[in-house]
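Here is a complete protein record:
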Amino acid sequence: MPDESIPAAVDPDPAVRTLTPAERIAPSRQDPLVAAATRPVGGALGEHAAVGRHWFWSPQRVGLGLAVLALVLCWFGKASCIQQYTDSSGANQLDWRSGRPFVAMCYSDIVPLYSSEKLDDPRTFPYVSSWREDSQTAQDQTRYMEYPVVTGLFQWINAKLTAGWLTIADAGWLPSALPVAVYFNITAFWLALAWLVTVWATGRTTRRRPWDAVLVAISPLVLVHTFTNFDAIATACTAAGILAWARRRPEVAGVLLGLGAAAKLYPLLLLGVLFVLCLRAGKLRTWGRAALFTVLAWLVVNVPFILVATRGWWEFFRLNALRPMDPDSLYTVVSHTTGWAGFDGVLQKGQTPAVLNTVVAVLFVACCVGIGYVALTAARRPRVGQLAFLVVAAFLLTNKVWSPQYSLWLVPLAVLAIPRWRPLLGWMVLDALVWVPRMFYYLGIDHKGLPEGWFLATVVVRDLAVVGLCVLVLREIYRPRTDLVRLAGDDDPAGGVLERARDRVRLPGLRSRRNTRAITGSPGTAGST
């Protein structure tokens, strides 16, 4: 039997070769869900169909076009929260009366942050400017911008663009609206572009399966959460960084991951993924270049604020350490069902939940060790997308906070990890539907909202769906013949220098030891290739 750890020899440099249309995979021929969805328009792609001859509509452009439609629908879903009314004094006000953000399910952090982060004050600058807040302790009265540097500057720049727009509108050259509404629309425009970059980069990375990017474009999570917060910036940097790594540009990949980490910290997790895979393949020098440029990019963005506004820059980390468990976390589920308050206890304002933080760290490190063990012991080296999805999913599942927009992080990684449309769409629909009980839970029982138990039940269902995807990914790692990406003839489209590289370091797993004993009749270990 051939060794599964050694892929068959094909094109010596497949990562940069342009594929012919005939080499692309049509999901309508492979996936039952896609095949059923194509029946109203003629059915699955025919065996003798002419592919790749249209002068404009490539799979990439179709995906981007569908993404634009999804983003427009997302904007309409949030637009109810930027409506205005005229109060008794004749002034225009934002219409958030009677729990409108929750009843209309249009809530977006972008709207309240415009005033709460003092972006409506032209004199403020992120991390340098501070303000006072009512609190039980003097330590918490001084507040600063609470987001990482790239995200904080992104908000500030949009606030300046809003001021410029309103100045021109006052002269009659542009339509006018409430400042917060203009700010939301400007922010939504840039976030939409960021998500289009995510779709584009994912489609370029999948190579033989360009239609899989449609899943990123039309995901129900896009319809709900693209404009809930600013996470599309980090997904764009991460997806583009993976593409650069796939194109064997580790320095560019490092810069993009560093910028992504300066917007949200989760892109740093991919460095750990690449380290384990490069260790196994003997490509640590390439990983070192990517890691170096990641650190340099992060430092270039952060060091000026560390030196000039140290306390303001540290606000993000301080608040994350102080933050208790959110209703979205499994820790809240455990506390609610068991009545045990040991995770947080009774915390005073400004007190760190030490037990909770320790449990979160230990569980996540344990998951990373397990994923590293899988990466180094599987008969065939896992793909980058597979391990990236597992690590980010483990981070979310073990974290004390799973804000709804965090699910966007998983969308492009899930498509790279397991391009099976039925389970992916099933998870995306379930995850997006959690938004409904979430909004009515925040509305409050006194205002005809949902009790906590109903919302937590949907959180459990969402988490079980993510765990189910992780199980499918692990199954395909240990059974590469069930991996649709490798069945198509690729080894690792996102692997870059890892694609079709021979293993240099491989640990013998428990299964390998059992197989060796069964063959030799004596203790032994499976050799690495």
In short: The chain has a mean pLDDT of 85. The first strand starts at residue 84 and ends at 86.
